[in-house]
Amino acid sequence: MTDPVPTIEVKRLERCDLFILHGRIDSSKAPEVEAAFKSVTDQGRFRFVLDMSDVAFVSSAFLRVLMTNHKLAKRFNRGNVYLAAMSPKIVDVLELAGILEMFQIFDSATDAVGAC
């Protein structure tokens, strides 16, 4: 059975790109997120907000995609990756992986977009 909602929706905003993630981002879904990042970075855009309010689970494959694109955005001071509306469970995963401090965290996607 497939998810009725796509794993990721991308909305191009004036100052950044909003990625709205859904469901479980496991090793089978991480490439979809990676492809979304690539489609935006190929256009020379490096400011991202990830709305994770509807994310139930993230795998190490997603963490790799997240870190790779964070480094790409920060390279040459081009941009940043902002994380928004994460559940305490997802925050714990990032903290256990030792990468939580790499990112600016916001309570809502609106707050994160405002910080771009």
Characterization of this structure:
- This protein has helices spanning 30-41, 60-74, 88-96, 109-115, and strands at residues 8-12, 17-25, 47-58, 80-84, 104-106.
- The protein is α/β, with parallel strands linked by helices and 116 residues long.
- It has a single domain (8-111), classed as Transcription Regulator spoIIAA, CATH 3.30.750.
- Strands 1-2-3-4-5 form a five-stranded mixed β-sheet.
- β2, α1 (30-41) and β3 form a beta-alpha-beta unit.
- The longest helix has 15 residues, at 60-74.
Spell out the blueprint of helices and strands.
Layout: E1 8-12, E2 17-25, H1 30-41, E3 47-58, H2 60-74, E4 80-84, H3 88-96, E5 104-106, H4 109-115
Parallel strand pairs: 2-3, 3-4, 4-5
Antiparallel strand pairs: 1-2
Helix content: 25-40%
CATH class: Alpha Beta
Largest sheet: 5 strands, mixed
Number of strands: 5
Structural class: alpha/beta
Count of domains:
1
- The appropriate CATH architecture is 2-Layer Sandwich
Rg (C-alpha, Å): 13 Å
- Under CATH, the homologous superfamily reads STAS domain
Give me the number of helical elements. Answer: 4
